[in-house]
């Protein structure tokens, strides 16, 4: 019977065949230990010379790293294995012999590994990170589908910036100028006016010349938008969503978290509600911590966010940023118009902002004023203004950066390892 490594628990003490690659091996004369992988997981196959035909043992000894094989044997329990099972091998069939595989068990430099990203993905560590990424995505769909959201797909090619900034990738759209999307948010607001609660999941692009461990040129965003929801409603949804995703990873990625040696005790503390501080309080806190350069009206950088996060075991909301720091569409606090009804969610352990969100301006006159202040003229933004003209309602939304979230949950230092093929300032290959 054919099966996969993640399903061997169903076949205890039975013979099965698995299509696999040889990740590594070691032998001691009369026994060979084959480290097998098949895409679903990793498992050891044990070949005992006295228990198999001679040609099977000879093949086991000659197998090279990343050769593809069919391996047949009996599934037995093995308490020492992270999987809990191993195979007592009875038969081997070579599919393809790999020669001079470039990524050996020795240490390699990061640039070398990135140049061979198409192969590096096969390693146990990279496999674990990608499985956690997959679980975050799966749990995201589950959470929003369960809570009555419709998935709506915004365009990637747009006629203007969602944020009103210049950090855009420009292209030609026949005779017109076009840009790669920085965010689907404006389109999701239109969708929320049609469907109530919506979310999108797709690639976004930032032409920001940054080399930090938190930045990618191309990354993926989850962007929910909700009609008839105010700022407080949105904050509650955000913390419920993040807590749900973390629990899903804890429940369904135990092997992967163990492979990465992640301290799961820290993740087990991630339950709603999350702590909150205002921007005002954050500035005062930073000054007390010796950040004498920070003044009210300044944006926070990575060292500031890390200092704030270190005071909490859970993600922390920083709310009510100065109006001048944030995008044109954010709703001012009615009681204090110099700040907006917004929040950044800062992850623990130095991983920085993972969510940015706000209540949106729903008043036509105020939005027209914002258009004038930000010089948003022409047809590219006219349709967005019309959302305030025809049945405007209070509404809120947020965007979660997938790669930063995966980096935090998996305990991975650099976001380049949390996306299959990263696009960095100096990298467009492979």
UniProtKB/TrEMBL annotation:
Coiled coil start-end: none
Top-rank taxon, per record: Bacteria
Protein name: Asparagine--tRNA ligase
Annotated source species: Salirhabdus euzebyi
SUPFAM superfamilies reported in the protein's UniProt record: Class II aaRS and biotin synthetases, Nucleic acid-binding proteins
Biological processes annotated in GO: asparaginyl-tRNA aminoacylation
Boundaries of every Aminoacyl-transfer RNA synthetases class-II family profile domain copy: 130-430
Reactions performed catalytically: tRNA(Asn) + L-asparagine + ATP = L-asparaginyl-tRNA(Asn) + AMP + diphosphate + H(+)
An MF annotation (GO) of this entry: transferase activity
Keywords recorded for this protein, A-Z: Aminoacyl-tRNA synthetase, ATP-binding, Cytoplasm, Ligase, Nucleotide-binding, Protein biosynthesis
Family: Belongs to the class-II aminoacyl-tRNA synthetase family.
Enzyme class, broadest EC rank: ligase
Catalytic activity, EC: 6.1.1.22
Gene3D superfamilies assigned: Bira Bifunctional Protein, Domain 2, Nucleic acid-binding proteins
Keyword Nucleotide-binding annotated: yes
Pfam families according to UniProt: tRNA-synt_2, tRNA_anti-codon
